[in-house]
Amino acid sequence: MNLKNRSINVGLLGMGVVGSGVVKALTQKSALIAQQIGCSVNIARILVKDMDKPRAVDVPKSLLTTTPADILEDPHVHLVVEVMGGERPALDYLRQALQEGKSVVTANKEVMAKHGPELLALATQKGAQILFEASVGGGIPILRPLTKDLRANEISAIRAIINGTTNYILTKMTYENMEFTQALKEAQELGYAEADPTNDVEGIDAGYKLAILASLAFRTKVASQDVYREGISRLTARDFRYARELGYVIKLMAIARREGDQLEARVHPVLIPQEAPLAKVDGVFNAVEVEGDLVDKVLFHGRGAGSMPTTSAVMADILEAGWNIARGTTPNSFVTLDRAMSIRSISDLVTRYYIRTTVSDRSGVLAQMATILGNLQISIASVIQQEADHKEQTAELVITTHPSRERDVQQALKELAELEVVREIGNVLRVEE
Amino acid sequence: MNLKNRSINVGLLGMGVVGSGVVKALTQKSALIAQQIGCSVNIARILVKDMDKPRAVDVPKSLLTTTPADILEDPHVHLVVEVMGGERPALDYLRQALQEGKSVVTANKEVMAKHGPELLALATQKGAQILFEASVGGGIPILRPLTKDLRANEISAIRAIINGTTNYILTKMTYENMEFTQALKEAQELGYAEADPTNDVEGIDAGYKLAILASLAFRTKVASQDVYREGISRLTARDFRYARELGYVIKLMAIARREGDQLEARVHPVLIPQEAPLAKVDGVFNAVEVEGDLVDKVLFHGRGAGSMPTTSAVMADILEAGWNIARGTTPNSFVTLDRAMSIRSISDLVTRYYIRTTVSDRSGVLAQMATILGNLQISIASVIQQEADHKEQTAELVITTHPSRERDVQQALKELAELEVVREIGNVLRVEE
Predict the structure, then answer these.
(1) With 90 as the cut, is the pLDDT of residue B327 above it?
(2) How far is B350 from chain A (nearest CA, A)?
(3) Which of B26, B175, B294 to mutate to test the interface with A (most CBs of A within 10 A)?
(4) Per-residue pLDDT for B1 more than 60?
(5) Shortest Cα distance from B26 to chain A (angstroms)?
(6) In chain A, what residues touch B139 (CB-CB under 8 Å)?
(7) Which of A383, A433, B165, B428 lies most in the core, judged by the most C-beta atoms within 10 Å?
(8) Does B337 reside within a domain?
(9) What region does A82 belong to: left with phi over 0, alpha with psi -120 to 50, or beta?
(10) Which of A61, A95, A94, A71 is nearest to A11 (CA)?
(11) Does B149 share its domain with B280?
């Protein structure tokens, strides 16, 4: 077979910032691509919503179409690259492409988190490939290293900062004593947060990515609804101040951990020690820490979003798929999700806790609280009493605990809230050592 | 082809700590391996120096041999795994294995740094595969991410801490004010440094690894002798104190940088800002930062040595090669080193410098020194004068410069040393921003 005269024809679904980046990279890097896979990669057709919209990259109008079938049903299209985002209609397009035996590259975390196992099975059945490196961590190589380089490991845990928007907000709150609403506003002004920030701020986006990471790491099916989620909107500047005093920073972390055939999968704010590698991941950066039986802990750090970094990951997948298409070789389908594991309820979590309360500023308060905690086997690690409000005759009491069971902590919080001396449970956060 | 009834036969060269790790992993993880590549991987034969030596892992004595040909010339051996280290005879064995059409996995940085291009070409010619992930960064996935995940990038720079021994020593010097000899002694006692530490301490080991990284990143042939090297033995506790005062830490860094068709490749101690991600890589940990046009900076961090982490990387290569051998597929040979580039002399380096001198404690000294620097277009960024020794009537003067050319700095040092008021040029270090 003379590869030199062959060409891989790509059908591109979507031409937003990442789509434009892919078009630019395929055009500008054609020599590099040909040298790497032995044949050229051409854009055959691009699906857009609006033919006449002005675009960041010049493309001949004849390449554009608003009809999905022009790509999905064209036998000359070898590879479908989906960078449109959102669950529908992207899922339908990916399904159809695979049904037609076309290989697929996608950056779509929502589709992969919700329908990954189905699409992977379909790809295997059709002898096609589905690659999705760009769906987690933007330009950071993580899915391929996890499933290729670390494949001999039994993975025990993944800890990740995989949402740049929230990490930007939390970094502002950490270093500039900002309140959440102000930091969010600034992130929106800089284009780091959307007008409706729910997806990022409530941990939904990070939850999708964790579902994908956990599925690959533990070789089982972790669906996005299996991931326990709490967002960052109830964090206050006070929490950051206390965290600092205690030697911690606050991060929105995505954590998946295996114990035997049980899995934890959760996204929520945590206090982590200031000297932990993940504590130093600031601004819009992402990082994923993988813990395996052979390798111990490995950390991957870089830009988790943005047109160019995401294009880097999409292009790697295009070149990988292109290599196989050009040679008609079976893809090295390294992804199997057939292990039986159960998701552990958040109530069964055992970790340390940070509890901030507003209490009456009089003696005996701590004794009453400690009794409740003690009766539930929750042992106190530290207490800070501060910021007495003389007018209101209240004080702020921050308690951290030794490892305790979430169920017991929730029960304790109920009982604490009923104490006459406790005015308010200000915030409760988990501590990750 | 029924993969289930097939088996990949491995000939193992060497049974030190990594060899034992590989034997253990292949035995204990046989189910995982079979599930991942569709067939089993067996150890056919192990080359050892001494048949009767007691071993960390129990293996039937019939598997052991002291005759290389028992592995290299056995047609039933599909894959040769070399974990013996050292240039010879490892190189001869690898050559012979490839000549016989066997695929090869090696952890040997010295062989790959000195003979990588030859072996890669031989592998391609014979349709075999040579994989060497474990040769750089121990368990940290770096070579495959660099050549697969980041393959669409033009890499502009690599900055790495890739020698655990020296990083352990420097960390001790940073946080415990130790002198070099004391820190080295401690590293030796803990088994982190060898009795003859030259290879690590003089940057030879890091130089090998940088040659490999730079070759792959820039797709050209960088030989180990192309790498400029300076070790860490002339660093003193005083340098660390001044560095701290100036906001820096001192690390042994391996740096490769491209400008057009010119390459810098150098291993030497550098001052880097305390807040730089690489500044926080402490103890025996390694980290590699890759900078590409699409992805910007990505950092890979983890354990760069040790039996288990290195085994993790060797096993990944065995599984990758095994997959291809089982299916008779062409390996995705992503490594081409055919770009023409020239290595830039260290004299042409432009960077910032830290110069520590002992001078006469009298007025006018700085003026004389500044004149010499100024005449060579070296502009001063900061000056610290400290630690006057009243008895000797000397003071210590530390100068940092703005970006200057190495050639000019070396000339300045010569002229400074000739000044009557300059008693000694204490140390000169480069500063990496």
Answers:
(1) no
(2) 27
(3) B294
(4) no
(5) 9
(6) 294-296, 298
(7) B165
(8) no
(9) beta
(10) A71
(11) yes
**Set B109, B114, B172, B209: catalytic member:** B209
Is the pLDDT assigned to residue B15 strictly greater than 80? yes
Q: Please, are residues A133 and A18 in contact by the beta-carbon 8 Å criterion?
A: no
pLDDT cut 90: percent of chain B above it: 89
Among B327, B361, B376, give the residue marking a domain's end.
B327
Q: Which residues of chain B does A309 touch, with a Cβ-Cβ cutoff of 8 Å?
A: 294-296
On whether both A41 and A73 belong to a single domain, the answer is yes
Chain B residues whose CB is inside 8 A of the A149 CB are 133, 141, 144-145, 312-313, 316
Percent above pLDDT 70 for chain B:
98
Q: How far is B296 from chain A (nearest CA, A)?
A: 7
CATH number where B95 lies: 3.40.50.720
Q: Are residues B398 and B320 in the same domain?
A: no
Residue B309 C-alpha, separation from nearest chain A C-alpha, in angstroms: 4
Residues A150 and A250 in one domain: yes
Minimal Cβ distance to B294: which of A295, A298, A308: A308
**A209 is a catalytic site residue:** yes
Inter-chain touch A295–B303, beta carbons under 8 Å: yes
In the predicted model, is pLDDT for residue A390 greater than 90?
no
Closest CA to A227 of A215, A211, A209: A211
Helix (H) or strand (E) holding B92: helix B90-99
B407 and B293 housed in the same domain: no
Out of A287, A303, A319, pick the residue that ends a domain.
A303
Q: Are residues B109 and B218 in the same domain?
A: no
CA separation for the pair B202, A345 (Å, rounded): 53
Q: Which residue has the higher pLDDT, A422 or A4?
A: A422
Per residue in B169-221, pLDDT (tens digit) is 999 999 999 999 999 999 999 999 999 999 999 999 999 999 999 999 999 99
Please name the member of B29, B141, B327 whose beta carbon is closest to the beta carbon of A149. B141
Please, which residues have CB within 8 angstroms of residue B282's CB and are 6 or more apart in sequence? B167, B171, B174
- The tokens for B388 are 């006057």
| pTM, entire model | 0.96
Q: What pLDDT was estimated at residue A55?
A: 87
Asked whether the beta carbons of residue A299 and residue B299 sit closer than 8 angstroms, the reply is yes
Q: Residue A278 is part of a domain; what is its CATH number? A: 3.30.360.10
In this prediction, residue B18 has a pLDDT band, given cuts at 50, 70 and 90, of very high
CA distance A303 to chain B (A): 7
Strands B40-47 and B64-65: parallel
For helices B109-126 and B204-218, give the axis angle rounded to 10 degrees: 30
**For residue A228, what pLDDT is reported?**
98
Comparing CB atoms, the residue among B144, B294, B319 nearest residue A312 is B294
φ, ψ (nearest 5 deg) of residue A268: -165, 165
CB contact under 8 A, B141 and A145: yes
Distance CA B6, CA A344 (A): 38
Residue B220 is encoded by which pair of tokens? 């050209």
Q: Select from A281, A294, A297, A333 the residue whose CB has the most chain B CBs within 10 Å, as the one to mutate to test that interface.
A: A294
The dihedral region occupied by A2, where left means phi > 0, alpha psi between -120 and 50, and beta the remainder, is: beta
Does residue B343 sit within a domain?
A: no
Confidence of residue B328 (pLDDT cuts 50, 70, 90): confident
pLDDT digits (tens, 9 = 90+) for A135-165: 999 999 999 999 999 999 999 999 999 999 9
Does residue B341 fall inside a structural domain?
no
CATH value at residue B405: 3.30.70.260
Running DSSP on this structure, what letter comes out for residue B392? T
Q: Give the per-residue pLDDT at A335.
A: 75
Question: Could you tell me if residue B194 is inside a domain?
Answer: yes
B290 and B352 share a domain?
no
Q: Are residues B129 and B226 in the same domain?
A: no
User: How many domains is chain B built from?
Assistant: 3
CB contact under 8 A, A316 and B149: yes
Write out chain B residues lying below 8 Å of A300, CB-based: 298-301
Q: Which of A209, A280, A391, A414 is catalytic?
A: A209
Q: Which residue range is the domain that position A34 belongs to?
A: 3-136+307-327
Euclidean distance between CA atoms A222 and A213, whole angstroms: 9
Mean pLDDT of chain B: 95
**How many interchain CB pairs under 8 A, A with B?**
162
